[in-house]
Amino acid sequence: MLTKRKANKEDYRSIIEIWERSVKNTHDFLSEEDFNFYKKIIPENLDSVDLTIWSENDELVGFSGLDHHELVMLFLDPNFIGKRYGSRILTWLVDNEGINRIDVNTQNEQAKKFYLNHGFEIESEDAVDGFGKPYPITHLVRKTKF
Predict the structure, then answer these.
(1) Domains present along the chain, CATH in parentheses
(2) Ranges for the N-acetyltransferase domain (predicted)?
(3) 44-69 pLDDT, tens digit each
(4) How far apart are CA 146 and CA 144, in angstroms?
């Protein structure tokens, strides 16, 4: 059964490890230099979001991070991608936390399609990410129930 709990500082190492494996699996458009840049700044931002650890049978599935009603982080261990865990987590977050906004790397077609298939709609797009790096961002909103 999929379970959740609030993350704490002792979880940060596992969170970074999942982030790293997940990004290497899904963000093949990132340069090595930029991957290392993001890997360095992710830990600096973990305290600013509401982090949740998701597990099944005591095995770490992934983590999510919220900032009010915006999902700012959802990363799964690659072993769990494509097995409906993301859908279950996202549905729970929408139903219980009122998530209605997500930013996604435009080049991460799989993630963009995933959110669009779950009732999110494109609101706008930016040519660069929040750090001015050449990774377009698609801003998604959810106006209807899935």
Answers:
(1) 2-142 (3.40.630.30)
(2) 10-146
(3) 889 999 999 999 998 999 999 999 99
(4) 6
